[in-house]
Design a protein that fits this description.
By secondary structure, the protein is mainly α. Helices cover 70% and strands 0% of the residues. It contains 11 helices and no strands. The chain has helices at 2-15, 19-47, 56-68, 81-89, 92-97, 102-132, 141-167, 176-190, 204-209, 217-224, 232-260. It is globular. The two termini are 32 Å apart. 38% of the residues are buried.
Amino acid sequence: MTPYLALFRARFRALLQYRAAALAGFGTQLFFGIIRTMILGAFYAGQGGGARPMTLGETTTYIWLGQAFFYLLPFSANPDPDVRDMIKSGQVVYELARPLDLHTLWLTRALASRVAPTLMRALPMFVVAIAFFGMTLPPAWPAALAATAAMAMAALLTAAFATVITATLLWTTSGEGIARILPSLVLIGSGMVIPLPLFPDWAQPLLTALPFRAMADDPFRLYIGLLPPSALLAVLARQAAWTLALVLLGRGLVARGQRRLVLQGG
């Protein structure tokens, strides 16, 4: 594990240098967070006094959690641009020549690529959203600890999913098609567009069956208190099961892709 930890640390430190990009991303996410809270606030105001699965305050906090952890979540699960460039140019041969497992190498890159930018954006978003835009803290420390544990596991799950997408580059070097199809699916399925509790009852079994709920919705519900801290073990079990399944799928794709990969040049 030492080489992969060294790679994670090196990529993590390199990504921390992109402070201007993090600031720009923070501004963009803050803007869209304000727009989304205004839209859902108008929806709640026009709905009347009927029963709701979430209060307006819980929905507001849910939205700001999505903005704070935006880069950690599935929208950023497009193919790794560095790997895409290496496959296009043939430089992926250097990846193959290393005495490292290729899938684990790409998984480590994917994890670092999500954790580092998120750390630079999440804390300022929490400060601003709690101070000015109605985001609330967890109801108790157990809820905060449970949400933190679930979010850490969600990062690994999202990285495993992203590695599967990167592995498809061994068949299609551009990756443009899958990069345009997946964001819509994962954004809706993870609750980043509309909080999942607001979906109709008939859609809930389908949303639960997909892996995207475990990437965002479950940790957010633990934070808000819609799920009690005692539900953490069930959440972690679901996340671990999906992570294992995606890792096995990714390893299978990488192994098969390596057998058919042809490199030209010298």
